[in-house]
Amino acid sequence: MHHGGWSRREILQAGTLGMMGLSMADVERLRGDSPSPRRPRAVIYVFLTGGLAQHESFDPK
Fold this sequence. Notes:
Layout: E1 2-3, E2 6-7, H1 8-19, H2 24-33
Antiparallel strand pairs: 1-2
């Protein structure tokens, strides 16, 4: 979901900031003042061995 240059995360952040009293104009101004976004440098990959837990495999049909 990336429409018009706003990602879903940015929309949720703007909504949260709105509840704290910042307007969309303030968000855009702060966004324009910040340097370009950094690229991720690392990925956390969690590999868990084993099967499903008892409550995850229950199917009440």
